[in-house]
């Protein structure tokens, strides 16, 4: 049998879980294996509500992409650590606004590419790159990125639920500035990061994920996470756009019928927001 027909694809590491597949398991997807489901169940056990938090993060993604495409009028999206295809992916939301909107997905997990291809996500306006996002040059020089992204016009950089995958040694927040550097003023950042102001709980969740053997960073506190938007102009998280601009619990960002909440009454949440490059 040719490699192209074999499932799982031979390049997949089946010896330990991956974040993309465990996250898919949390979201109730089918693109995961026993070790991934064990990790998802272990995280849910130590932090009840992780599944709901992942759902809130996806709902935030859809609202934020709709806002960036609709209100900011940005038509190109670079979605880093995009994850396995699920409902309401970036290209679906962005291209609902305008079919010409362009999306570049990047993920380190080869299964993302395999499934995106299977779902025929790749077309004239959307591509998927398998790369380590920490190699900014490799991503930005990839033929697909060069074909779809015009850096003379504003780009929306998406870093959702990704930066906590990196340890402090990687200087994860510097990635935001390295990617935004060649993008013009008016470019946008859509961001979320697993966050807690309970240090003991943050450590317990972090240790549970590390114990699975998959590379990961850590849960950070809200003060640390503010570094994601340094030098950017935050957008108001209020539905009508009038409230103070700040980072909030993703479940309260421009969610109809909900007031934005900075520090929710939760042990852990996705700290999130949208910001614009001045
Ligand atoms: N961004 C999606 C979302 O918010 O729904 C998926 C988030 S998932 C928790 C994190 C994703 O980042 C996974 O798909 C994982 O494979 C990817 N990832 C982790 N480290 C990466 C790296 N160094 N380079 C590229 N992708 C990475």
UniProtKB/TrEMBL annotation:
Keyword Methyltransferase: yes
Source species, domain of life: Bacteria
Database matches in Gene3D superfamilies: Vaccinia Virus protein VP39 (3.40.50.150)
Residues forming coiled coils: none
InterPro entries, per database record: SAM-dependent_MTases_sf, SAM_dep_MeTrfase_SAV2177_type
A GO MF term: methyltransferase activity
Keyword entries, A-Z: Methyltransferase, Transferase
Record flagged with keyword Methyltransferase: yes
Biological process according to GO: methylation
Pfam families given in the database record: Methyltransf_19
Name under which the protein is recorded: SAM-dependent methyltransferase
Species this chain originates from: Streptomonospora salina
């Amino acid at each position: 049998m040719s490699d192209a027909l074999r499932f799982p694809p031979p390049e997949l590491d089946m010896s330990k879980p991956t974040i993309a597949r465990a996250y898919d398991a949390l979201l109730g997807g089918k693109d995961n294996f026993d070790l991934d489901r064990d990790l998802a169940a272990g995280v849910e056990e130590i932090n009840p509500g992780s599944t709901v938090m992942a759902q809130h993060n996806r709902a935030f993604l859809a609202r934020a992409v709709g806002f960036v495409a609709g209100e900011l009028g940005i038509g190109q999206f670079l979605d880093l650590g995009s994850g396995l295809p699920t409902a309401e992916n970036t290209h679906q939301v962005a291209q609902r606004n305008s079919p010409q909107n362009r999306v570049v997905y990047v993920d380190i997990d080869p299964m993302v590419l395999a499934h995106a291809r299977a779902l025929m996500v790749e077309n004239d306006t959307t591509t998927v790159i398998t790369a380590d996002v920490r190699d900014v040059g490799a991503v930005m020089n990839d033929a697909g990125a060069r074909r779809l992204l015009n850096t003379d016009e504003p780009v929306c950089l998406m870093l959702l639920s990704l930066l906590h995958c990196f340890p402090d040694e990687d200087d994860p927040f510097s990635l935001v500035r390295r990617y935004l550097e060649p993008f013009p003023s008016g470019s946008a950042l859509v961001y979320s990061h697993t966050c807690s102001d309970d240090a003991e709980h943050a450590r317990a969740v972090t240790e549970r994920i590390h114990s699975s053997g998959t590379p990961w960073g850590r849960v950070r506190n809200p003060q640390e996470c503010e570094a994601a938007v340094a030098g950017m102009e935050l957008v108001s998280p209020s539905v009508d756009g009038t409230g103070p601009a700040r980072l909030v619990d993703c479940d309260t960002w421009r969610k109809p019928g909900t007031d934005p909440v900075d520090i929710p009454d939760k042990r852990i949440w996705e700290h999130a927001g949208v910001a614009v490059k001045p």
